[in-house]
Automatic annotation (TrEMBL):
Coiled-coil portions: none
PANTHER family attached to this UniProt entry: GLUTAMATE SYNTHASE [NADPH] SMALL CHAIN (PTHR42783), GLUTAMATE SYNTHASE [NADPH] SMALL CHAIN-RELATED (PTHR42783:SF3)
Gene3D superfamilies: 3.30.70.20, 3.40.50.740, Dimethylsulfoxide Reductase, domain 2, Formate dehydrogenase/DMSO reductase
Organism: Flavobacterium suaedae
Ranges where the 4Fe-4S ferredoxin-type domain occurs: 755-785, 871-900
Annotated InterPro entries: 4Fe4S_Fe-S-bd, TAT_var_transloc_signal_dom
CDD domains on file: PsrB (cd10551)
Protein name (record): Quinol:cytochrome C oxidoreductase
PROSITE patterns in alphabetical order: 4FE4S_FER_2
Amino acid sequence: MASNKKYWKSVEELNENSSVVETLRNNEFVEEIPTDEFLGDKESLEASSTSRRDFLKYVGFSTAAASLVACEGPVVKSIPYVVQPEEIIPGVADYYATTIADGFDFSNILIKTREGRPIKVENNNLEGSKIKPNARVYASVLSMYDSMRLKQPMISGKPASWEEVDARVKAGLEEAAASGGQIVLLTSTMASPSTDKLIAEFGARYSNFKHVVYDAVSSSAAIDAFETVYGERALADYDFSKADVIVSVGADFLGDWQGGGCETGYTQGRIPKNGKMSKHIQIEANMSLTGANADKRIPMTVTQQKYALVALYNEITGSSVSTPAFPNKEAVTKAAKQLKAAGSKGVLVSGIDDVDVQMLVLAINNVLQSEAFNPNNARYIRQGNAKEVAQLVADMKAGSVHTLIMSGVNPVYTLANSKDFADSLKKVKLSVAFSMKEDETASLTTIAAAAPHYLESWGDVSIAKGYYSVTQPTIRPLFDTRQLQDSLLKWSGNPQSYYDYLKASEAVAATGKSWNQLVHDGVYKSSDVAPAAGGEVANYGGAAANLAGAKALSGMELVFYTKIGMGDGQQANNPWLQEFPDPITRVSWDNYVTVSKADAEQLGLENYNVDNGGLNGSYVTLEVGGAKLEHVPVLIQPGQAKGSVGLAFGYGRKAAMKTEMMVGVNAYTLYKDFNGVQSVKITKESGVHEFACIQLHNTLMGRGDIIKETTLKEYNEKEPAVWNEVPKVSLDHKEVPATSVDLWTSFDRTVGHHFNLSIDLNACTGCGACVIACHAENNVPVVGKSEVRRSRDMHWLRIDRYYSSEDTFIEDTELKENTSGLMNSIDTFGEMEDPSENPQVAFQPVFCQHCNHAPCETVCPVAATSHSRQGQNHMAYNRCVGTRYCANNCPYKVRRFNWFLYNKNEEFDYHMNDDLGRMVLNPDVNVRSRGVMEKCSLCIQMTQATILKAKKEGRPVNKDEFYTACSEACGSGAMVFGDVNNEEDTVVKLKEDDRMYHLLEHVGTKPNVFYQVKVRNT
């Protein structure tokens, strides 16, 4: 019998009119679940011990809580046009041809704009385009939206008008002319014919005028040598596609050596064709991008490299200059014989800052009659004169410089004797700095003249003799800025604008091409180029004798270099570049001194990983002469030559920088006399440095199904089944090829488009341009050093770098296969965790493989990830509730989880946290919210735009018309994207190539991304 007895838990319940009881009866949770407070506060989330299961229960209390976590979308405010410009169609991208020439990077490019906003850099593939964009060029569009930019000119630290600036400068110039004081224009290399003409006209007005060209990272020795032999201040151009044997002595020509841009020609010769490919031998101290791609790498200190160069000279020219003994002499002699045998198909390059070295390079290439060596189309992109810069500092110190006008330089940051420069600047009566930011130098000058970004400017550039290109603005100036050229015209009393002046100059520079056509194309190539003129008679024998007598430096050799991500440091406030992992070390947000393992043990230096996967390291003090650089983190680098250490330029900046970007140490402090090699004393410091390194595993450990490689001999002589073995699986107790087994019923994919992406491991240099292009196209967020250290980087595309444990990867495989027994296996595999002292290196771009049988799709409880007929794996962000089951089930580990809301969040104060920075965002791609998964989409917005364009024009899609951000950005041609249902597309031929394989093919995921086996010419 049921009881009708009334039970109660609180005396309050007996009060029938109680508002408290009514509230409790109607609301299970009286207060809203504080998910926003919990999940939006980084500190409280990190401090929480809540398990993942508890977390899911916590957010699963109500539908509202789950929605709050996973489905919160950013509110986007749009401002309509009052009068819509005719040339802008909302939703349709416009492209403008232009050229970047910032003194360090030079490249002919296209700029993608949306509704008047430049949002992305792309390749200009027209004939006459000279240098393909690198990672920094792709990132340069974001630097235009830097919130730390100068908004208007400043006089003595206070805002001023351009009229006030003009009056002050004109008065200063007149005073200088009257008093006989020097007027000096200090600029970076501009390689601009019209600007050179304008400067000459400006300088002709003053008898005491001088123009000094200053490059922060000097190539002065190479220019001096070229001028001696050919009578012109320039650099030889090289086309590595014409070389069968390439020998490089300390030249990182796949990086920034002499302006870069060599990767396109280089990789053309590196892909095996008709059984042949080029042979590349690298002699160097630091492990460089170029050395990592070489067939044979010989580690040597710079002094030893000089001896090796003399040995090469002796072999090729028949000279007999004796040298001291040096290590690896047999390998050098063998390389010299191969180079000599190649004759005109051989080429030698060097990056050592020594005139004698560069003289021998010219001598050897001339004796070989190298086809790859081209002095006729000499490069003009490095014009800096180290002697004149040193003389300028001396003149300033003596008080003889009255007016100093600077543009595109920051000597207070980049000069080793920057204190002398800063002190001497006080003796200059009038100092003007044209700068985008109130940087280290501009903050000390009389006038900080706000300069526009190159995307807001007019200009012209001659990257090399016979090549001419135009820089055009792609947006109205964002701030009250003015170019140096316009200012020089005003100060000269010339009423012309620089645009009119430039247009008049173009008629001479680009004969036969109209101004409109030139601006449209962006580039012009002359078919009539005069051969290089001769200079004085060169004393090659004397240069060889000087090198043979080179004394070893006392102590360790400090070898300076530039990272492919940071360059000379101009864009140090660019978060894309700060978070970009270095291709070799895989470290972001830092520079460091690289040391060999042997030297590290001798000095008591160490690196080790902690529980969360983060990498830690020791600190040292570096001392060069009387200059000290303290608190420098140490990274033990496999392949570093014993007796040498490396340090990258471009870090350690403080002025006009966001706090998060003030990282690293200023290597320029030790860059004495513009010499790239210094004798250094190293002292260990106390403390531990925390690196943001995104790759914990150092070696491949013989896992040949990830990176497949073979030798050229084996490739030519054996069947593909030997060097590109298809993995086997068991079916009905029989061993069968993995590709023949399928767990699912396959669909007919021959209807419509079906996209595939090919990646050639022979052509991929690991440069990372594709990573930055992906960032720009797909609104990938920057998360900062702390999050990267926790392995929470958001890069949709990573480039894995692998070292060999033995001297070669093939020896790794043999060691693994010859292992037997439990204890032997444990010992062997434990040893294989350590890379070789001079390892072989392999690079592999990895992103979502867009599997036709995707493991992620089968485990998603809300169907947020699904597959299309076109072969792309989709993400419906509004459906995703962040279970991360898909990431757990992905064998390629390419999915990224949004731990926080990175957009409009003060905890992540990068470009997505301010209105100016968000101008770079691509409106075709969602800005993802907290709590959802994201990953590569094979740029579905780009493929659909191509389809719609063809449909609108009433035609089928053309051959190779489809492309993604990464394939478009790849200057080496390693990435080829296309439609496998279009038999004319290049990707179809690549899929049928004998070198084609899929990553982890035995898993049976049937990816739409495939790779080409790496072939080494050993």
